[in-house]
Write a structure and sequence with these properties.
12 strands, homodimer, globular, prephenate dehydrogenase (NAD+) activity (chains A, B), NAD+ binding (chains A, B), alpha/beta, oxidoreductase (chains A, B), five-stranded parallel sheet, about 45% helix, NAD (chains A, B), amino-acid biosynthesis (chains A, B), Alpha-Beta Plaits, 6-phosphogluconate dehydrogenase C-terminal fold, Rossmann fold, four-stranded antiparallel sheet
Chain lengths: ~350, ~350
């Protein structure tokens, strides 16, 4: 096999992200070498199939990925820039501009460093929870600087695509504002909700349902890791949190004003719906197929059987009714390209059905 | 079959909760009659197997469950108290004290009304999303008043247990404070997170991952329903939100103070962990079984195979390492009663393992 630029990858840090990357790159045909300050982590990751353990003396990587906790990333990047004078270096840190500034101080010549940030992880840590599918269909942000060589940027972008991620390119500062908005603030809202439970008597926790569990899931993440992320992005996070604090004060004022309150709840609903669709993809383009449900006892069960047998992936459905005609209507949301097919299929089975845009 | 007190149940409102209750009660052997202001909803629910459609003239229920939106509950309770002079009446409203006060104004003689609140639902609405398992292992709060007859309270408690719920009894006012804490405030935190997305450029939404989706899931719920819930519990919710607002102000101040910030994140983590365990149950009592992982390439994979073949349900696991001896340790959390069995089983397969309390 011809040796390509990105054949040999050294991953520094065999935690959840580093080990998962090792698994995914190995599967994609890369030769992966793993190193971790805790040698047993690299051993475990290698044992799971994420690569070979580094023996340091013979490492000669084309690409180095620094996948350690944020605080030690700049020092390691500076070290490998010097140690491997031909390698392209990237990292997986969650905040890009402060890392770049720190590297700038430690190793002023850093044009072979191309920052990046795979938007993937979990509330777990360590190589045991690694998965070769961690990056599949997720966004991997690459944050190049003007001094980076296009070929080096391309190497990192290819690596991200080779593990199934969707590459988004943006400047480091913009990236940091975006993650404050869609990751760091939601994390802190989860923390605020969960930490407020310290004020709640144990007996009242019996009433906790699925809702609060969803809202507080990410609050279970490692406090030390998140302290590093948040302190390094403090000014962007503060800006967003001050907006949230204003919203919260407004909301407290509106609690007994039904109209204003419902309007605010509607803004929340709209925000939640704006995230519907798959990770890192545009929202799915759906059409509604509406079916008339005659006034017969088993009509609906029969309709569901028919839809099921037609084998379409139903994204959502809603029941509406006509008070005067005493008829029910089932609106089924499906991807635009299959809507007509579903409609035809249902009509063939004897139903009245039509399709159109979602209300 | 002998006619028991709770044989015939009339459910008013065939939405998600009413229809699910009809499915569950029918399965438990009750004779269920359904009514909804939208007749097609009752038809659909009946079609799914949740009971018979009411014909109003011949209804003669032993129990009436009012499962409508909160705003119309008091009026319907007053109406059925008069219409069915021998029936026990309950409702499923999310806030109890204001409903009780409203009923008191409409029908001063209401000793046959026993308030209750099943802690179950979803972000969906309508009979199509109904499930006969909606109440299984969930908490169903019953909020009796001094004037209620013990036999009437028992009827409602039995009905809740018959659909698989775990009954918790508490006064209406206490219930309302508890739901403000574990349901209404988390809902509003989800709303604040989701509504803040209106400030976020579309391009930045590409970076949204699973975390924000979890936090904002319940914000997708029906704004009109939640407006009714929140306005009727406004004073308890305000009290809690003012505490959250203080926490938020504190948090904004600590963003660049690593120690204090990490401490606050730790409080959030502790709060999230306090909810671990199944709904309406005490947290699972777990022990840790720790296994030494020798320095061999496939040791960990082999260990996982052995644990898998032993057939235990692993709640959690963590990898630690000994820097000096270059050994890894796998700590496996399992329920206390099976820990010793797991340890023995693993030792039998040649591993060094011991068990003890979770750190």
């Amino acid at each position: 096999m011809r040796r390509t630029l990105t054949e040999n990858v050294l991953i520094l840090g065999a935690g959840l992200v580093g080990s998962s990357l090792g698994l995914a790159l190995t599967r994609a045909g890369y030769d992966v070498v793993l190193w971790d300050i805790a040698a047993s982590h690299a051993l475990v990751a290698a044992g799971l199939g994420a690569g070979r353990v580094s023996d340091e003396s013979t490492d000669n990587p084309d690409v180095v990925v620094v996948a350690t906790p944020p605080d030690v990333i700049p020092g390691l990047v500076a070290e490998v820039l010097e140690k491997f004078p031909d390698a392209v270096i990237t990292d997986v840190g969650s905040v890009k501009a402060p890392i770049l500034r720190a590297i700038d101080r430690l190793a002023p010549e850093h044009r072979r460093y191309v920052g990046s940030h795979p938007m993937a992880g979990s509330q777990f840590t360590g190589p045991l929870t690694a998965s070769g599918d961690l990056f599949r269909d997720r966004t991997w942000v690459v944050t190049p600087e003007p001094e980076n060589a296009p070929a080096d940027i391309a190497v990192i972008e290819k690596l991200a695509r080779d593990v199934g991620a969707r590459v988004v390119t943006m400047p480091a500062a913009e990236h940091d504002v975006a993650v404050a908005q869609v990751s760091h603030v939601p994390h802190l809202m989860s923390i605020l909700t969960a930490s407020h439970l310290r004020q709640v008597p144990q007996d009242n926790l019996q009433l906790a349902g699925q809702g609060i569990r969803d809202v507080t899931r990410i609050a279970g993440s490692d406090p030390s890791m998140w302290r590093q992320i948040l302190t390094s992005n403090a000014s962007a996070v503060r800006h967003e949190l001050l907006e949230v604090a204003q919203d919260l004060a407004f909301l407290i004022d509106q609690l007994e004003r039904p109209e204003q309150l419902e309007k605010f709840l509607g803004m929340g609903q709209a925000g939640a719906l704006s995230l519907v669709g798959k990770h890192g993809q545009d929202p799915i383009d759906v059409l509604e197929v509406t079916v008339e449900i005659p006034d017969e006892p088993r009509a609906l069960a029969r309709l569901f059987t028919d839809i099921g047998e037609a084998g379409f992936n139903v994204e959502d459905f809603e029941l509406t009714h006509d008070q005067i005609r005493q008829l029910g209507y089932l609106s089924i949301s499906v991807e635009r390209e299959v809507a007509e097919q579903l409609r035809a299929n249902i009509v063939e089975r004897g139903w009245h059905a039509w399709s159109g845009s979602r209300k």
